Amino acid sequence: TQLLEQSPQFLSIQEGENLTVYCNSSSVFSSLQWYRQEPGEGPVLLVTVVTGGEVKKLKRLTFQFGDARKDSSLHITAAQPGDTGLYLCAGTNTNAGKSTFGDGTTLTVKP
Amino acid sequence: NAGVTQTPKFQVLKTGQSMTLQCAQDMNHNSMYWYRQDPGMGLRLIYYSASEGTTDKGEVPNGYNVSRLNKREFSLRLESAAPSQTSVYFCASRTGWSGGSPLHFGNGTRLTVT
Q1: Could you give phi then psi for residue A81, rounded to 5 degrees?
Q2: What is the pLDDT of residue B98?
Q3: Which one of A42, A87, B28, B90 has the minimum C-beta count within 10 Å?
Q4: Would the CA dihedral through A29, A30, A36, A42 be positive or negative?
């Protein structure tokens, strides 16, 4: 089983602060996805990264895939209360088709 | 578009009872998945169906069975519920087998086994 470790598990910050969430594995993935989940709902895709070293930006969110395709990070600039939620990373290998999820980072942004 | 629809939304069972969780998607996706989510443990794959007519075990299949009824529907059955199966169950689908396509999730079934 391929494992994905996310850190930190919990993060509570003030509005306007910056933060970074990490997703690490000893395994190589062909693609990695980040999802955001709100209470009572299913996860929703934020981004997919497929190339080692790739950086993608989604407004105030910046996603990076490690050069070796074993790790990824999510950086949020000037966090807002609307960013509150559970952030999940998921790695997949093309020939398997199954996604392995990390345990998630619960982010709380206080106004 | 409804996307992925799960029923029921909530269920309480007594130990030993059986039930089937229903999942349907209207996006013409080939692959469908069942996950369970427990506090602090992310999402763990129970069973999946790469395409209509095929099913396979995931990480935590014990105590569950599945049926891919047709391309749209993928059900999860608990034959004899146990308290350890108290969890939130999510059904998901994606276009194909490639990991690059996004998973689309339903809103979950919250199951309590007493």
Answers
A1: -55, -30
A2: 65
A3: B28
A4: negative
